[in-house]
Amino acid sequence: MMIIFFAIIMLCIPSASVAQWYVGQASIPYNGDDYNKIRKQAVELAIENASLQASSYISIENTVRDGILTSSKSNVISKQQISEIIILNETITAGKLTVNLKVNLHSTSNCIKDAYSKQLIIAQFPLLNPEQATPGDISSLPFHVASRFKNELINQPSVFVEELIPQMVFKPVSSFDSINLKSVQGISHGLNSQFQSQYLVFGYIRDIGLYNEITSSLLKNTTYPKRNFTIKVFMYDRISDSILLEDEYHGEGGWSFDSFTKVDMSNSLFWRSEYGQAIVDTLFKVSQDINQTLSCEATKATVINRDDQFITINIGTIHGVKKGDIFQHIKLKNIPARNTVMSTLMPPEEPTLLEVVQVSNKISLLKAPENEDINGMNQHQIDLYDVVTTVTF
């Protein structure tokens, strides 16, 4: 079956970016054995061929599964980033499998990007329809999904996962329910005493329904049990009080288990099955999108302590901070609005620059360089819970 496959691959795609398509082709000798393995190699080589045309280099390891790029072990070095891949056709002729595809590359020149990891916490993902877990008794699926989602996010280059928390942030009654931002804000800020993360990732599992796929032929109809996996994901930024990401992701796979007995979800047999792999692949796509979003966000850190000597912020070496790094101070203003309070970042008219003078795993001590603040007056205007950032506003 020949259909167009899409794959979103990592990192910054700015909203105003310019895309350009490059065509790639690769041929691999094929003697009739292990078609999927040969096809995977051909797709990888065709992607590399297309990327090289744009003066890019892409190194791919175990990335293609049924035409969809799924591995996190990809590396692109270029001013262009791969956004979309379309497989045009694949043919076997004269003992060779040939794959033709095109790759959509976006310029990243407008993307705000720095070297620091963005810190987040992950809430639980409840089932919207718990009765859908009855076949196979997979009611523990949300726990396993959250755990595996954490593992996928840990492997993303722009993400630092502080914790997987036991709380549910949002459980809708129906898939049409909207987010109560004030409620999310309250929960997120209520976690301040335990966690330092700027970002909160949460959502729910919308559909794990079991269904039969029927294929027809001249001689008979074949019934193939399959199961959905649809997840709704949100990412909340508690500094700007905004939802940075809101999207729904869908996967499906063959259901090869007895639906009348409990499936052992701790067993690797489940996660190696077609349905288990569909869940993992879907979570990988979500983690890529989160990484892509955060990689284009300027790093912001909160002032958690101040004294006559130092300003202390809540990021350190595990986030990529080094001695000598420079941050800019900005004020976090809470502006009263109708029935709410709007948070906004307000840079001073004359920005105060702060240099990292000491750094540990999770905190850094900053000080205004003497040549920038001779009398120390600017540094003394920095208050608790103000914000520092890597970008001039």
Based on the model shown, name its key terms:
393 residues; alpha+beta; 6 helices; disordered N terminus
Largest sheet: 6 strands, mixed
Our estimate of the beta-strand percent is 35-45%
What is the alpha-carbon Rg in Å? 24 Å
What's the overall geometry?
globular
The rounded distance between the terminal residues' Cα atoms is: 50 Å
Q: Give the integer mean of the pLDDT values.
A: 81
Indicate the low-confidence ranges by residue numbers.
Answer: 1-18, 55-79
Run of helices and strands: EHEEEEEEEHEHEEEEHHEEEEEEHE
Task: Give the proportion of residues in helices.
Answer: 10-25%
DSSP summary: helix tally: 6
Helix/strand-derived class? alpha+beta
By DSSP, the count of extended strands is: 20
Structure description:
The structure is a single chain. A hairpin with a 4-residue loop joins strand 12 (221-237) and strand 13. Strands 8, 9, 10, 11, 12 and 13 form a 6-stranded mixed sheet that branches. This protein has a 6-stranded antiparallel β-barrel with strand order 14-15-19-18-16-20. A 3-stranded antiparallel sheet has the order 1-7-6. It starts with 18 loop residues before the first strand and ends with a strand. It has 393 residues and is α+β, with helices and mostly antiparallel strands. It is globular. Mean pLDDT is 81; it is low at 1-18 and 55-79. Helices cover 19% and strands 38% of the residues. The chain has 6 helices and 20 strands.
